[in-house]
Design brief:
3 domains, Serine Threonine Protein Phosphatase 5, Tetratricopeptide repeat, flat, Arc Repressor Mutant, subunit A
Length: about 325
């Protein structure tokens, strides 16, 4: 029954009836947890998850009955058991930023002293640590309201004498973890066959869907955020170029164009991306489009960075080279 109900919820087939069955068999809190988990499971994971859950339920040794899904790309968002926590719940922007920072470092213990210096640099050590305790209190209060564990060994934000940690386990689904996983899988696909190419496309398209914008927009606390923002953007740009190259090879020029435009919007001074887009326009005979792109890019480089445009771009706009 559990397996069938979760699959119905995952694929939207009689989902309301399936939800009602879960509530009837378990309880509302457990059902909410299962519904949230169902939406995150891949097909290959269903049977193992259901068997493990039912076995734990029957022996009274259930795991944490909450599931946190968080996204840090673009505007960060956090939900517990499928219920989104609105920004209005957080006492201040800094409190939410504090949680986002802990999520970014999930899986590692972060020193309380270091966190205090990052978030309250204008305060002395004692005052900064006191402010941190207040922020942590408000974080736990909100998470508890949405049925996450906030104390004991199962606490979402786990506190030790060494510091604070959001553990990287089955209760947390984080978009940056999925992005890195997909990129790692991509590096393993090295064959030249059509099947290999299709695997690459599938992985790259998933990466495009996960990356919804720069990491933690509006949160500039600490060097870690800035470093990771640039790292993820670099991976995204590389993925855009790889996927657009395959699209061009397949003749899917419209999709390639949208992808290159998205990459250029992310890195507006990247001459290689601009060059690829120019070549695409010129190959289609869209000279006016290419010229508009060239001169706007040239102006941006000269006005913003005071540098001359790469001669490769000038040569591309002057030629009729085909790709």
């Amino acid at each position: 029954m559990t397996d069938m109900s979760l699959r119905s919820i995952r694929y939207g087939f009689n989902a309301d009836h399936a939800s009602a069955m879960l509530i009837k068999f378990f309880d509302r809190k457990t059902a909410e947890y299962l519904q949230a988990r169902a939406k995150s499971l891949e097909e290959r994971q269903f049977t193992a998850f259901c068997n493990e859950f039912v076995s734990s339920y029957q022996t009274g040794s259930l795991p944490q009955l909450y599931f946190v899904k968080a996204s840090l790309f673009g505007k960060p968002a956090i939900s517990v058991n499928g219920i989104n926590i609105p920004d209005t719940e957080w006492k201040t922007k800094k409190v939410k930023g504090f949680l986002e920072y802990l999520l970014l470092g999930s899986g590692t213990t972060m020193s309380k002293e270091t966190l205090a210096e990052i978030f309250w640099p204008e305060s002395d050590s004692k005052s900064a640590l006191a402010s941190q305790r207040t922020a942590l209190y408000h974080l736990r209060k909100v998470m508890a309201k949405y049925n996450a564990e906030v104390s004991g060994d199962k606490a979402f934000i786990y506190e030790t004498p060494e510091g604070l940690q959001i553990r990287r386990n089955e209760i947390l689904e984080l978009d940056i973890h999925e992005f890195v996983r997909l990129y790692s899988e991509l590096s393993k696909v090295t064959g030249p066959t059509d099947q290999d190419e299709q695997k690459k496309v599938a992985l790259l398209e998933k990466m495009m869907a996960v990356y919804e914008g720069d990491l933690m927009e509006g949160n500039d606390y600490g060097e870690l955020v800035l470093q990771e923002r640039e790292r993820f953007k670099s991976i995204f740009i590389d993925a855009c170029q790889k996927l657009s190259s395959i699209y061009i090879k397949r003749g899917e020029l419209g999709r390639a164009e949208e992808l290159l435009k998205r990459a250029l919007a992310g890195e507006p001074y990247n001459e290689n991306i601009c060059l690829e887009l120019l070549h695409l326009y010129m190959s289609q005979g869209r000279r006016s489009k290419a010229a508009k792109l060239y001169y706007s890019f040239k102006k941006r480089l000269e006005q913003d960075l005071d540098i001359k445009v790469d001669k490769r771009l000038s040569e591309a706009i002057a030629s009729r080279r085909q790709v």
